[in-house]
Amino acid sequence: MRILIVGGGMAGWTLAGLLRRRGITPTIVERVGEYSRVGFWIGLYPFSANTLRETGGYDRYAKGSLAQEHYVMRDSEGHDLQDMSFAEVLGRIHGFMGGLQRADLLDILRDGGAGADLRMGMTVTALEQSDDVVQVTFSDGSTGEFDVVLACDGIHSATRTLLTGDAREGLTDWGYTAFTWWAPRQDAVANNCVEFWGAGGLFGLYPLADRINAIAGMPTPKGLSDMTQEQIVTAVREHFADYPEPVRTALAHAADDTVFPWAMVDHKAKEWIHGRVALVGDAATGFLPTAGVGASNAIKSAAVLADELGRADAATIPLALRLWEQRTRDRVEANQAASRTLAKMMFVKGHTVAKVRDTMLKHYPVEKVAKDVLHSNTHAW
Ligand SMILES: Cc1cc2nc3c(=O)[nH]c(=O)nc-3n(C[C@H](O)[C@H](O)[C@H](O)COP(=O)(O)OP(=O)(O)OC[C@H]3O[C@@H](n4cnc5c(N)ncnc54)[C@H](O)[C@@H]3O)c2cc1C
After folding, report:
1. pLDDT tens digits, residue range 274-289?
2. Distance between Cα 211 and ligand 1 center (Å)
3. How far is the CA of 297 from the centre of ligand 1 (A)?
4. Which pLDDT value is given to residue 254?
5. Ligand 1 pocket: which of 27, 34, 42 to mutate (most atoms within 8 A of CB)
6. pLDDT band for position 119 (50/70/90)?
7. Which of 55, 118, 143, 366 is buried most deeply by CB count within 10 Å?
8. Looking at the domain assignment, is residue 305 inside a domain?
9. Shortest-distance atom of ligand 1 to CA 14
10. In angstroms, how far is CA 221 from the centroid of its own chain?
11. d(CA 291, CA 377)
12. Which tens digit of pLDDT belongs to each residue from 342-378?
């Protein structure tokens, strides 16, 4: 089977690794000429991490990630709202929530896909398909013929735009930006994901073994694209000035690193499958980071797709794509819905509404909001 993967990210390399193990050598085109280490904390749930057992990187993942112990929610004054033990909710299935740097996870997945026909610094500029084949034109002017094209080129997928003609289709801008940077570890955070939910702001601290990823979510400042790093750091510090420790210490370290503005945008494609071209991972359903489940869904969804493609031949690929969509779409979209519900709860603006939310949160366990995410670990895909 001639398989083209567009985009060498989480989904693309998962597919490459699993297809290689099924005797298929896919072609991958990746837009960047060289991978950077840009990226922060990624959480991986067991339903997705288990895929690494098959691609060969699980031990590296288990040693290189930090098992997150508790998910702790506080209000903006530091009062406890909730405390969920990951060991309690995931331990039953002998799994853990691993936190690691995105670049390290990508390294593990890339090693698993070694041997794929990789073309860096390249993308797809045109697609034309018949019932049996997809003709592809690449950015260097070369062409190729494939039995299937898997668009794994992320939330702003250019392949999707080639198919739909609409670069904005399915994208939702939530009006918030998460400013993120690395800060030193703090005893008050330990091995826990600690979040402070305020009015018009959320401050999260997500630990690795040697540092913490600080994320300051706030309404996108006007003129953000013209702001200097210094202005960004000042705006973030002012927004969270009244928050307690350990937020203050993390804020004090904001100027030590480049503060990266991460637009809170998600995406929901109308169609996942266009003939012999499928949208996979964020290209199909792109997540807000609020439930920490985007990478997990991309990897798991890619794993199910490799499974179905492994049982197909060139003629039956359209059936394999349909079976994959049937196995994954509802679950992925339910997880996206959970991320959106959490976002609506996090991103409330007024202090009165925030107080009502905080009171409710003391009695409404976050496990209920995230029940589909947790079910993803224990229910069939
Ligand atoms: C640089 C980067 C840093 C990130 N940092 C974080 C983070 O810190 N925490 C977090 O939770 N999530 C992060 N994400 C998002 C997270 O990795 C994805 O949401 C999730 O893993 C979904 O995986 P995916 O494979 O669908 O997309 P991605 O992992 O985003 O991979 C898409 C890949 O496609 C490539 N690509 C894009 N356009 C084209 C094109 N036209 N042609 C060819 N290739 C193309 C990209 O360079 C990238 O390698 C980051 C994504 C990127 C790209």
Report:
1. 999 999 999 999 999 9
2. 22
3. 13
4. 97
5. 42
6. very high
7. 55
8. yes
9. 25
10. 24
11. 14
12. 999 999 999 999 999 999 998 888 888 889 999 999 9
The CATH number linked to 152 is: 3.50.50.60
Interval 191-226: pLDDT, tens: 999 999 999 999 999 999 999 999 999 999 999 999
- Substitution candidate for ligand 1 out of 10, 68, 162 with most atoms within 8 A of CB: 10
* Cβ–ligand 1 contact at 30 (below 6 Å): yes
Residue 322 lies in a domain: yes
The answer as to whether 298 is a domain residue is: yes
Q: How far away, in angstroms, is 154 Cα from ligand 1 center?
A: 5
SS3 content of the chain, % helix, strand, coil (to 5): 40, 25, 35
Atom 52 of ligand 1, residue of closest alpha carbon: 39
170 Cβ closer than 6 Å to some ligand 1 atom: no
CB atoms within 10 A of CB 118: 19
pLDDT at 91 over 90: no
Q: Would you say residue 224 lies in a domain?
A: no
What pairing do the DSSP bridges indicate for beta strands 202-207 and 273-274?
unpaired
Helix H or strand E segment including 3: strand 3-6
Query: Measured in angstroms, how far is the CA atom of residue 364 from the centroid of ligand 1?
Result: 33
Q: Is the CB of 154 under 6 A from ligand 1?
A: yes
Among the listed residues 322, 100, 114, 301, the one whose alpha carbon sits nearest the alpha carbon of residue 211: 100
- Protein residue with its CA nearest to atom 35 in ligand 1: 7
Provide the domain count of the chain: 1
Q: Is the pTM of this model over 0.85?
A: yes
Cβ-contact 197, 358 below 8 angstroms: yes
295 lines ligand 1 (CB under 6 A): yes
Q: Closest Cα to residue 123, out of 107, 108, 141? A: 141
pLDDT tens for each residue of 10-52 = 999 999 999 999 999 999 999 999 999 988 999 999 999 999 9
- The answer, yes or no, to whether any atom of ligand 1 lies below 6 A from the CB of 12, is yes
Cα first-last separation, the chain: 24
- Could you list the residue range(s) of the whole structural domain that residue 298 is in? 3-69+95-170+267-344
Q: How confident is the model at residue 123 (pLDDT cuts 50, 70, 90)?
A: very high
Centroid of ligand 1 to alpha carbon of 302 (angstroms):
14
